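Sample 1 of the test manifest.
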Amino acid sequence: MKHQYSNLSRLIYQSDIRSMSIECDKVNGINLSQGICDLPINQRVALAAKKAIDSGCNHYSQFDGLPELKKAISLKLRSYNHINASEENIIVSAGATGALYIASLALLNPGDEVILFEPYYGYHLNNFQAVGAVPVYVKLYPPDWHFKIKELEKVITSKTKAIMINTPANPCGKVFSLDELNQIAVLTNKYNLIVFTDEIYEYFVYGEKKHISPGSIKSFNNKVVTISGYSKTYSITGWRIGYLVCQKDWVQMIGYMNDMIYVCAPTPLQMGVAGGINKLPDKYYSRLCQLFSKKRNIICEYLQKAGLTPNIPQGSYYVLANASIVPGKTDKEKALYLLHKTKVAAVPGSAFYHSDKNTNLLRFCFAKDDSVLHAAGKRLLKLTK
Ligand code: PLP
């Protein structure tokens, strides 16, 4: 019988990340492909959620988020992101993923073009395609993943509606500088574009680099939808708590979309995150950053020794490594060769490019216990034998 899938479903296929995880399970390998952080949850966050459940906080909450959480987020936005937002500018959603989807539903029409920096995070692409928007790509050039402003301006047409920024970025770890953001702001003003910015890795920034939220930059003229969440910061990817902040003119319709799609984010878990934001000291975030900076160094040293030269990431918890020495005609073949030779799973670089099947890149996730990173690193050294 002919299937009855929608036109949209033709654009959605099993991601390479998922298929590498399945292959990895088959050989009982170490999975550095999926961006799952297996580190333990902070106890204050866990206790605040348990307390909420025990005290009967288990029902639908306001579609835009619990006041306690929105208040906590607004204070955090002021102090950490330098975004002057009040609770009315915030919608709590089902993770950063949910937040981007509801904002796209409210602000984009089918046929609108949205600019993505490439390599991109696959969910961003799927999200825009899911609302009928048309992705347009601008290259980031290694090793520092800079873009060329002329190339950015060149892809803007009368149909361009928005640009997606991801800082720090998955998969390349780029942290956009103030100068780069100012250059983008000149174009978004000139062409009246919306800026979506995904800052889920905002606390994972290494070395001299600093996280800068586009939403804090005046020259963007309030046309920024800032998206973030606590999946990564509190190691609660399964809780599905994220949020967005934007101008008041947009927030109401985006909130209605949240109501329609998700009804609300999980109520007691919103309380858990509010507890974390209110009670965890600044030291928690600086320690997190130090911890991950060490993990980055561990994995990068092994990659270097294994002949998989890493592009040292400025932020996030992924590293793209050069896979020229790995046999295989495509990135996917290389990832499979690596898995079978070393029992370590990585993601083929082509998963982050729209047409290039042979980028010679593999992505490794280092959000793992140090012991797992050492075990994986030792296995990767087999490549040199
Ligand atoms: N944004 C980026 C860039 C990511 O890499 C991820 C997860 O890998 C997410 C968003 C998912 O965030 P959430 O769990 O809040 O939906």
